[in-house]
Structures are given as C-alpha cells and as structure tokens.
C-alpha cells in the first residue's frame, strides 16, 4: 500500500511536465484521465484509512481534511478547465499548487512532514538575516542609481542603464546569484573601469558574506529543530 501510494503521488506530481504548457506535451484527455485515476487512488486510500480509524480521530486529523480539500479542489479545477477548453477559452490549471499536499499529508510521509516542520520552525529565525540582506541590497541599489543614473549610460541592447530603482534592485538581486555577471556591469565598466569596484564590493558583501551567513543560519537552526523533533 505504501509503495502504491508513493507511485501515484509521483505520477500526480509528474503530470506538470506533460500538461499545457508542458515540457513533453500529451493530449489533455490522457493527462486528465491519469489525474482522475490518481485522485481516485488517494480517495480510496483515505477511505481505507477511515475504516480502520475511529471517526472522532479521523475527522480531527487536519491531514485528512487537507487531503479531502485538495482532492475536491483538483477535481473542480479539472472540470472547469475541461469545460473552458471545450468552448475555446484559455485558462490556467491553478490546482497544481495543491499537489504537494498529497506528498506531505499521507500517513506514510511522516519523515517528510518532520522535515517540513523543521523548515517551518527555522523560517522565523532566519528573518533577521534576510532583512539585513534586503537592507544591503536596497542600499546598494540606491548607490547604483546615484552613481549611474545621471550618466545616460545604455546597455548593449540600447536600453537605459540603471535609471529605474526597482529594475536596479532586480538586476542586483540577480547579480547575487552571479547569473548576469559580468553583463550587468559592462556599460558602467566601459564608461570607467573604476566602477568595477562597486560591483566587486557588492558581490563580496552580498554573495560571499550574506549568502554564507544565510546558509549557516539555515543549516544550524534546521539541524537544531530536527534534533529536538527526533528526541536527541
């Protein structure tokens, strides 16, 4: 029963790869039949659990309520999406976001719930580090606006460079991951090579210092909460 439950949970989560917009598209009828099959298995698993559990215990368990609500939402969304598709109306399968609920809330997923609770308990304790990081990002963005905003610089595509504060925040946020490095600094570097110091300082402070601190806080607190839950 546990293997079958995990198989259909995996199948249900994998449907996102084949539903529109899809990596490997399959006909809507195929994906919808597979999803209904998965939901029926989940409903049968829930009904089986209800037959071996006291009704008072079953209906007080929020995990069972979450599974039933997720099944209802998924079926409702599938029906609405199918009707709109028949009439040629484009819509979105919004119920995909509830599919991980099946992975977390079944009785066999005790270890996953334990890890999930550890992550949830860790979040409040990393808030201060995250706020410090956001403050640093906003301050560097403000400095970038003052440094480059009045110099009429343009990107390689001919677009204005660092003149909109929110766009600067986004570009520097991406720079934390180094995904747009060194492209993001080239217009400033072409104007004056000394401007590279700004981006070097930004990367040192936010990528190396803050990200390392963030990772250390997350790891230590997660390990602490998991140890408490395991009774260590």
TrEMBL record:
Keywords: Membrane, Signal, Transmembrane, Transmembrane helix. It holds the Pfam family Ion_trans. It comes from the Eukaryota. Residues 5-224 form the Ion transport domain. Residues 1-16 form the signal peptide. One of its GO terms (molecular function) is monoatomic ion channel activity. Its main location: membrane. It is a multi-pass membrane protein. The chain crosses the membrane at residues 26-44, 65-84, 126-145, 194-219. The keyword Signal applies. One of its GO terms (cellular component) is membrane. The keyword Heme does not apply. SUPFAM superfamilies: Voltage-gated potassium channels. It is found in: Membrane. This is Two pore calcium channel protein 2. It comes from Manacus vitellinus (golden-collared manakin).
